[in-house]
């Protein structure tokens, strides 16, 4: 095969063009799943697919696919490249979109150079990866992998009170294909790291060989509101004491036993939330992550046992809702080695990495060999308008994707 490189200007222009969709008068980018802004982004992506004569197909959960196939390879399973185009609130322009548009650039580069492949290539844009409007995250790929019933997912009520299925129909992106209708031969997701490792170590490429398990819960402790000064400790039913005990138990156990686990209390609401009143209710979120199966299981057991201990004491009511529990993922060794080898061929430095964030690849890994490619994020910033990856780094990642994909589809 001739030595190919992606078209730098074309890739960067597309990233910038899509990155303008969803900006408000202050310049903030917000493209939440199934909003009008998301529809506009989808429309633009589909127009790019059609301009390349790709077969555009949409499943009944709104996942979008553009497939490049030739007469000689139509019966083969495709290599799938992709990510998502929905964003968080006040987002950067690279998260998710970079992977989808780099997949598009790979296909266009191969097509315009009249390259033949043994496998088709499908570009995927999965619905609601971020999970901001419709929690939890990665719903589109979770439904696609068959691990979540589509009717249950469509009944998800968003943070704005809207039903997901209704919004999908409203924007015109409820397709006629059953989720999972394309069974990929393999899946690769190119993404900014969203962490500081590559940037700080000045490494070009991350060959992502595993992804942390992640659990997310809302926990509610209920007690009794009372006067902050005149209620003795022995007579208090203080849910904040329970929160403090619960979190310190987790932290102390993790640190004492050297678990490869992190626990985060990211949000808490107290009622009545007054300085001189013992709260009657504390509702908080718990996010726990671990890259190893044993560490992940041990952490989940610790959470459940500690909640049972607090409940058994009889002073505090305990309610826990598990929003999501995703076990750790080991990516395909052959694809990971291919990514590292492609980096070497392009004279780029690389290292094996763990993904600390969740991605669609962890769901698609359940139905096809999968892996991820990371490029640096400046200072590790993401989900933030300051999110930045240099043009050179974006191009490097896309070229690694091009070379890796070319080997898998036997481009010639």
UniProtKB/TrEMBL annotation:
Keyword Hydrolase: yes
EC number: 3.5.1.87
Top-level EC class as recorded in UniProt: hydrolase
Keywords: Hydrolase
InterPro entries (UniProt xref): Amidase_Cbmase (IPR010158), Bact_exopeptidase_dim_dom (IPR036264), Peptidase_M20 (IPR002933), Peptidase_M20_dimer (IPR011650)
Family annotation (Gene3D superfamilies): 3.30.70.360, Zn peptidases
MF annotations from Gene Ontology: N-carbamoyl-L-amino-acid hydrolase activity
Location of the Peptidase M20 dimerisation domain: 214-312
Cited Pfam families: M20_dimer (PF07687), Peptidase_M20 (PF01546)
Family affiliation: Belongs to the peptidase M20 family.
Protein's recorded name: N-carbamoyl-L-amino-acid hydrolase
Source organism (scientific name): Jeotgalicoccus aerolatus
Organism phylogeny: Bacteria, Bacillati, Bacillota, Bacilli, Bacillales
């Amino acid at each position: 095969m001739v030595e190919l490189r992606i078209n730098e200007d074309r890739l960067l222009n597309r990233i910038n063009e899509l990155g303008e969709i969803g900006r408000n008068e202050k310049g903030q980018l917000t493209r939440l799943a199934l909003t009008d802004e998301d529809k506009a982004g989808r429309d633009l992506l589909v127009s790019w697919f059609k301009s390349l004569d790709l077969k555009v197909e949409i499943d009944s959960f709104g996942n979008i696919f553009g497939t490049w196939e030739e007469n000689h390879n139509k019966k083969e399973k495709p290599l799938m490249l992709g990510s998502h185009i929905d964003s968080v609130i006040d987002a950067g322009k690279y998260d998710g979109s970079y992977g989808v548009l780099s997949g598009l650039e790979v296909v266009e580069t191969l097509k315009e150079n009249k390259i033949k492949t043994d496998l088709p290539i499908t570009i995927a844009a999965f619905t609601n990866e971020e999970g901001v409007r419709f929690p939890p995250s990665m719903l589109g790929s979770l439904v696609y992998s068959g691990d979540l019933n589509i009717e249950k997912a469509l009944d998800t009520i968003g943070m704005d009170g809207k039903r997901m299925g209704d919004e999908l129909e409203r924007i015109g992106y409820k397709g006629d294909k059953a989720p999972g209708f394309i069974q990929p031969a393999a899946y690769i997701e190119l993404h900014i790291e969203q962490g500081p490792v590559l940037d700080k170590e000045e490494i070009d490429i991350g060959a992502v060989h595993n992804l942390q398990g992640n659990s997310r819960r809302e926990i509610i402790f209920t007690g009794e509101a009372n006067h902050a000064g005149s209620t003795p400790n022995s007579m208090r039913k203080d849910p904040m004491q329970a929160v403090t005990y619960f979190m310190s138990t987790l932290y102390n156990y993790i640190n004492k036993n050297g678990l490869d686990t992190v626990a985060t209390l990211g949000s808490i609401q107290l009622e009545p939330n007054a300085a001189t009143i013992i709260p009657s209710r504390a509702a908080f979120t718990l996010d726990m992550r671990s890259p190893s199966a044993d560490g992940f299981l041990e952490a989940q057991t610790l959470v459940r046992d500690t909640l049972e201990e607090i409940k058994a004491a009889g002073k505090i009511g305990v309610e826990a809702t598990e929003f999501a529990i995703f076990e750790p993922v080991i990516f395909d060794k052959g694809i990971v080695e291919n990514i590292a080898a492609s980096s070497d061929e392009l004279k780029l430095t690389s290292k094996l990495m763990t993904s600390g964030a969740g991605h669609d690849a962890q769901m698609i890994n359940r139905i096809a060999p999968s892996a991820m490619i990371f490029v640096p994020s400046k200072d590790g910033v993401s989900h933030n308008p300051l999110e930045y990856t240099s043009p050179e780094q974006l191009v490097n990642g896309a070229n690694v994707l091009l070379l890796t994909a070319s080997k898998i589809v036997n481009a010639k």
